[in-house]
Design brief:
mainly alpha
């Protein structure tokens, strides 16, 4: 099946220009685009067209039809007055109906033909339209929904997102577009970067549109996104820094080896070298995105955020970042959990995070849920970070933290017997730290000299009856642990004498 036939299959009613395309002159009577304007015509033809013709009074419902007819008929239009008036009509439609115009034009040619480039340039020839159209392109770029309501390309969000990335290199150098792109650079940069998240998951039907047309240039969807990212970075002047361009190159090379996440990591490390005035707005936008959406691109976004933590100013973002980490610790993705834990570990090493006391309690209450994770890395990191949170709290938060520490004793005690040696060692350090935090001298001594067999009895005997009952209730959960040593220790703990 040829690429044109595939487009027909995907778009449903779409037809190429040679196959019964509606006559533009008949559709937009009384204006005849194929001939010069009649002598003595007065006023702006495009304005009269918009105001007078009945089909244009029914937009936005008719915008798709109008754009498709213009797209199929434009190659046959030669009269300069007609072309100029048509350009003005496109500009006015873009100003009034940017959403419909953007989706319609992207749907006409997802792979960006010379005809669509001409139409885009006409739409972007004046500032008001440029701002509206670029904001709409940004919205399309960040819509990675799998839902589609019809066979038409305009109703396939991910196809439109790829098409939007494809058109950006063609329009970004237009002076008015470049000016607006600089104003929304953080949003555009991240929108293109986050396309990595779904280009790895495209269906065959989605990929075919791009691959069939561009296979001689090996322009796969992810390479199209990388190309757009390079053009954007160069367009806003970052080629002088060399950093952004080099980072995009790494992203492209990583994508060739099916490791785009590594490419994202490299891009983030390179972007750390940029001046704070460019770097900090990107980080702020990333925090805002992750705070408001829980999306398929969370892994890509978290990779970038964790890499940027080392260099950004957190004076105003610290509370948001830690709250964000607390939320994403609950992610179903083990990879995301590991990234969050590494991010918290990085925060704990910074010298300017004294305010962590305000949010350490929230972290301390969420981390124990990860002690029993199937990933040994997640268990080790979460236990290690729980110990770190004890040093974050100050003042009144210490009293509240004591309750969280008491709740953590049983899980930490049982994981002293974890099958993973690294987890068992992390548990011993964390248990010792918890005993010291609670000023529980006997427990501290037993942990210090590794007399683990006496710890259970000490916990049950030296605490009040209600607390001992809570400990026994926690240990019941470990009877279902996939680790045999933990199940065995939980049984032994349940059999300990109580006060």
């Amino acid at each position: 099946m040829c690429s044109q036939q595939r487009l027909i299959s995907l778009q449903g009613r779409w037809e190429p220009a040679a196959a019964k395309a509606p006559d533009l002159g008949a559709l937009l009577q009384p204006w005849h685009w194929h001939h010069p304007w009649p002598a003595g015509s007065s006023g702006d033809g495009s304005r009269a067209l918009l105001q007078c013709h009945p089909i244009l009074t029914r937009v936005p419902l008719q915008v798709r039809k109008i754009v498709k007819v213009i797209y199929s008929s434009l190659p046959s239009i030669t009269a300069q007055p007609a072309l100029e008036s048509l350009g003005r009509a496109l500009l006015m439609l873009a100003s009034k109906y940017p959403r419909e115009m953007v989706s319609s034009l992207l749907g006409c040619s997802p792979t960006c033909t010379s005809v669509t480039i001409t139409m885009w340039r006409e739409m972007l020839s004046e500032s008001p339209a440029v701002e509206k159209v670029l904001q709409e392109l940004l919205r399309v770029l960040t819509n990675h929904s799998l839902r589609h309501t019809s066979p038409s390309i305009e109703d396939w969000p991910r196809v439109l997102a790829l098409a939007a990335a494809r058109i950006l290199p063609e329009i970004i150098q237009l002076p008015l577009v470049l000016k607006e792109a600089e104003a929304i650079f953080p949003q555009l940069f991240l929108a293109l970067l986050l396309q990595v998240s779904f280009t790895m998951e495209l269906t065959l039907q989605e990929v075919e549109i791009f691959w069939e047309v561009h296979q001689q240039h090996h322009l796969t969807p992810i390479r199209a996104a990388v190309q757009s990212l390079k053009v954007l970075l160069c367009g806003v002047g970052l080629q002088k820094q060399d950093g952004g361009h080099r980072g995009a190159g790494w992203l492209g090379r990583a994508s060739q080896h099916c490791d785009p996440l590594h490419g994202v990591q490299v891009v983030a490390r390179v972007m750390r070298e940029l001046p704070g005035a460019l770097r900090d707005p990107i980080f702020h936008q990333l925090v805002e995105l992750l705070s408001t959406k829980f999306c398929s691109w969370e892994m890509v976004a978290m990779v970038f955020l964790v890499e940027m933590l080392e260099c950004v100013d957190l004076s105003e973002e610290l509370h948001c970042v830690v709250s964000l980490f607390s939320t994403y610790l609950q992610s179903q993705s083990v990879g995301t959990q590991q990234l969050v834990l590494r991010g918290i570990l990085q925060l704990s090493k910074r010298q300017d995070t004294g305010k962590l006391s305000l949010v350490a309690l929230e972290l301390a209450s969420n981390l124990p849920a990860l002690f029993e994770d199937e990933s040994g890395t997640v268990r080790q990191l979460s236990i290690h970070l729980f110990l770190d949170t004890l040093s974050f709290v100050e003042g009144r938060e210490k009293r509240k933290m004591r309750k969280e520490v008491y709740r953590s004793l049983v899980p930490l005690y049982l994981h002293l017997h974890d099958e993973e040696e690294s987890v068992a060692k992390a548990s011993q350090k964390a248990f010792l730290g918890a005993a010291r935090f609670l000023h529980w001298r006997r427990l501290e001594h037993l942990a210090e000299v590794a007399q683990f067999w006496q710890i259970g009895e000490c916990m049950l005997v030296e605490r009040r009856k209600s607390a001992a009952q809570d400990y026994l209730g926690q240990s019941l959960l470990y009877l279902q642990s996939p680790q045999e040593p933990l199940r065995r220790e939980a049984v032994r703990f349940l059999g300990e004498p109580q006060n």
